Amino acid sequence: MAKGVVKQRKSRRCLWCIVAIVILGGIAGGIYYVVKKKILDKNSSSTSSLEDKYSDALKIAMQFFDVQKSGKLVDDKIPWRGNSGLKDGSQAKLDLSMGMYDAGDNVKFGFPMAFTATVLSWAILEYGEHMEHINQREPAENSLAWITDFLLNAHPSQNVLYIQVGDPKEDHKCWEKPEKMTTKRPLKLVNSSKPGSDVAAETAAALASASLVFKKTDSTYSSTLLKHAKQLFTFADKYKGSYTKSHPEVATYYNSTGYGDELLWAASWLYHATGDTTYLRYVTEENADKYAKVDGPTWFSWDNKLAGAQVLLSRLSFFGDKGAKGNSGIDDYKKSADELMCALLPDSPSATASRTKSGLIWITKWDSLQHPVGSAFLAVLYSDYMRASDNEILSCGDDSFEPSDLRKFAQSQADYVLGDNPMDISYLVGYGDKYPEFVHHRGASIPVDATTGCTEGFKWLSSKKPNPNVAMGALVGGPFKNESFIDSRNNSMQTEPTTYNSAVLVGLLSSLVNTSSPVKSLNEN
Known about the structure:
Elements: H1 3-61, H2 64-68, E1 108-109, H3 110-133, H4 137-153, E2 161-165, H5 168-171, E3 187-190, H6 197-213, H7 219-238, H8 243-246, H9 251-254, H10 260-274, H11 277-284, H12 286-291, H13 306-318, H14 328-344, H15 370-388, E4 394-396, E5 399-401, H16 403-417, H17 442-445, H18 458-461, H19 492-495, H20 499-512
Antiparallel strand pairs: 1-2, 2-3, 4-5
């Protein structure tokens, strides 16, 4: 056979090989494309489903602020609530009718209320776009202003702050709706002779952070908030002392374990609000040695804000804030925040053992959900800071973790709250098919048309029937360490909701509604 013919046949065979490869490759490619598309569609659907879940939960959680409002209600969205506390503050010639009741009773405590405002402001500043996407930013800002209006009125002069409306001892002798309160409404205040650095500094933090929220939409109101914030911080720093030492009787309800964390927290917020490096020096020089040096991570709550301050200040390091450049003290706060994140991650070598078997952070039997929800909120913030600043690695001993690991932890805590737990119950009232029906809450437990005096209402506390009114959005206390939960109105340890826990939950859920990069400066909002 001629060499030329052999060569020609080989060429034709090769040509057919190429055609076959192309055809098979096209088929394989098509199959790959279809499979990949299905996987992507599935992942997209899964992500969308998760986001829908958190969106639905956020819409419900936001309603609890309306449940807790005092004063003359405008556009009342809760059918079983009405005007209450309209004369609060009148004996001091002040209008303290607004604000929110702290939990299931009818007292307004300034310390946890101010914390509620600070955290709600933080949530709006970081995740306001997420809220806006599902029409929740306006409700959040309205609830925030309901509190800050009260706080402004509670600060009639530079060194005077009214911190409580109502007598909890007398209030707890009654079981009655806030609309029908029969008890007296005495006031408590802190001043230069009865200092309260903790409550004054927390109120300063609330007003400073809120001034950022309203800076673009109402500059006059924002300026007023900031003015009061500065005055309150100066007052808190000049006249040092704990408010529960000035008023020991309040310690039974909201005992302050120290005021150093509030001073650092307030100064941190004032720096974000003003850019004044005086506040930055406050948190990084002498006061850092006094108040920021602790052994190991701390737990973020209405009483202890140090962990929150660490994360808030680490923001400056992540995004290269000019005022913080070269400030080693800010780096120290970031190192502490790193340690906290490592303690939260379950697979970290320094992971905290303070968890239930199902992985819920668990610190105390009273109001047990405050710490896991607070920890999750800080974790997702930190995750977003890392991701947005291209700091993709968190070193925990010899192990390394990514922002997604922190987000996964935050989701696990949120999912537990929403029903992924051994009791198969949602601890967010109104969410899911099964949630607490015997919430320890006066207004929710008494029928709208019932007429009760102070003590007659206790029949509703002991009633075996579920609450006639649903306290939508209430985050109840939560499970015991063994993950059991007793849905009983008399079990206030587990079934009483709080406004401040709702604020932290709103922050957590808002962060999970979507994935987006945070602004580099909170002053950009």
